Amino acid sequence: AGSIVTYVLRITKIDPLEYKIPFERFLNPERPSAPDVDMDFADNRRDEVIEYARQKYGEDHVAQIGTFGTMLARGVVRDVARALGKPYGLGDAIAKQIPMGSQGFPMTLDRALVENPDLKKMYDKDQEVHEIIELGKTIEGCARHISVHAAGVVISPTPLVDYTPLQRDPKGGKTITQYDMYSVGEDGIGLTKFDFLGIRNLTILADAVELVKRLRNIDLDIEAIPLDDKLTYEMLTRGDTEATFQLNGGGMTRFLKELRPTTIHDINAMVALYRPGPMQFIPTYIERKHNPRLISYFDPAMEPILKTTYGVLVYQDDLLIIAHELAGYTWGEVDKFRKAVGKKIPAEMAAQKEKFVSGCVEHSKWQRSKAERVWAWIEPFAAYGFNKAHSASYGRVAYQTAYMKANFPLEYMTAVLTAESGNIDTVSVMVHECKRIGLEVLPPDVNESFSDFTAIPAGGKEGRGAIRFGLSSIKNFGEGVGQSIIAERKQNGQFKSLGDFLSRVGDKNLNKKSLEALIHCGALDRFGERGQMSAHIERLLDFHREHALTDRNQDSLFSLMNDTGTPEITLPAAAAAGLELKLQWEKELLGLYVSGHPLDKHKERLAQRSMDIQKLKESLKPGMQGVVAGLVQDMKIILTKSGDQMAFLTIADMGGSLETVVFPKILKQFTNIIKPDSCIAVKGRLNSRNGELSMIAEAVKPL
Hints:
Layout: H1 4-8, E1 37-42, H2 46-57, E2 62-70, H3 73-83, H4 88-96, H5 109-115, H6 117-125, H7 127-139, E3 143-155, E4 166-168, E5 175-177, H8 181-184, E6 193-199, H9 200-216, H10 230-238, H11 250-259, H12 264-273, H13 282-290, H14 303-306, H15 316-325, H16 331-343, H17 346-363, H18 368-382, H19 388-407, H20 409-419, H21 424-436, E7 440-442, E8 454-456, E9 466-468, H22 479-492, H23 498-504, H24 512-521, H25 530-535, H26 537-548, E10 559-561, E11 567-569, H27 579-590, H28 603-609, H29 613-619, E12 625-639, E13 645-652, E14 657-662, H30 664-669, E15 679-689, E16 692-702
Helix pairs in contact: 3-4, 3-7, 5-6, 6-7, 9-19, 9-20, 10-19, 12-19, 15-16, 17-18, 19-20, 20-21, 23-26
């Protein structure tokens, strides 16, 4: 989005003139080579774009970029142990003692020996461990395997073999380069590198727009929606940010409520500022938005550059414009300036300081002291300034998701649930959000559900809309049976009764396992009671075999025809399934409770005494104390070295789950309370392990 050329060619919808993005930094006579081109596509259509490029430019001109997986500390010890013929458990035990690295700072074996005394003890005392680690050090960091880069694609003017060796991807058979992204790009052999990125939120937006057309017959152009929509800004000001792009999460939501955004520039700025480093400037930005008297500039010449951000330096691009317009840098020099401050190398920064200060004195006729004050103001920001083109692009998508949620909540949340259907934890959070905003979420139904989550416009309480689970979300239920049900319904109309359903779905895979799954998850609730149907499952299967899988002209042993010629089946009485059993079945087949929740009876006490697990994860940091309450969803008992029992629990509430560690002393004290499927409240301290938050239990109470 930082190039006028890509805007004119309609590659991007962001006008760099309107947003004051200096596109010259990308295309100027002093730049020796072309920049990379990053493009975001709906993640379910990314492969189409790559295939389009192959067809347009030729199979031998287009390839995805190869990337080399290297031997990192944990993998190295496992590989070395295996190569030496040691037991698997030995390599695994050593690997588990190696701490996780952080992004950009991978863990090394030398560092691990310093950071973990237990590993050092093993290394010093056990000859086998010593040998494995020493051999591991010699190959650590070497290339281990080649795979496909997540986004990178190269397109060459002549066949790619003129530039780079190629090979087949070992897993998928795609053509990939044997040079990595650094070697094929601007600083290597000079090919233009394209990043074709898949973003789920673009898939969600496209699906939501399609649903709006289908359900409301409204042709919605997501790129032409008004950027001053009142409902959208009101929703963000309330903090209703769940399921939006870039704007959700406890910290961001809290800042949005304080900011009370009114323009797209506010959203762009928050996308840029809400990161480690610049986050410190958010309170200043908020204060200046609500009190213009606090806005100030070092010089009147800065006002046109920083006006939309209330005088706060938010974007890297604003810094570059200041260097160009106030310090007299050429655009080629600006690009070098950008690279220098980004790397923050002391010698380069010192040289840039002198050049910047002297430039301001000569070009803007400032006093040297003023120029030095401006440098001191911009220097802390320089290393983490956010690219304005990225911010404008992400801000636009963030606004679009918020607009759809505010104006078309049913369609938007249906699309969100469909996109997240593979992640049951996220689905659980989104179901909770649907209920919070007044959309009922219902179990699957053979007359209303399609494969994916299905929007029911007139469903739910007071006809405000409901969302049904799709047939493909049912476990132990074949995709083919679901398609057969949908196809039959489309061709011959909805099913009128249980007998009608069983006689019309002629799929031989509608067997005991799949029929039981339909009954237990609630997909046949409109035709009967779950307990009764489940008790007479064999009778239903015999009926199905007779009426759907054999000659329909034979006399029926199990049913009578009604007036319309539809076979009917009558089931003997049986015990009804209670709510607890229904919820248990739903959890097993859909991954979460739908008809209710075991915690429903504790709602008032939960609200008073504990924090929502999702909110706790977003607002508390490791080391802080909190209280959570929920259902013991999973419980694993292990023995410590001293032979005592300790437990790992998964505690889940309506919208999330949290791993909780219970050490022997606490487990012994509360052993009668801590049981699978029990509802408990836990007071404890937060802990971060491998980047995941967990809680160390200090006290437990029954609900």
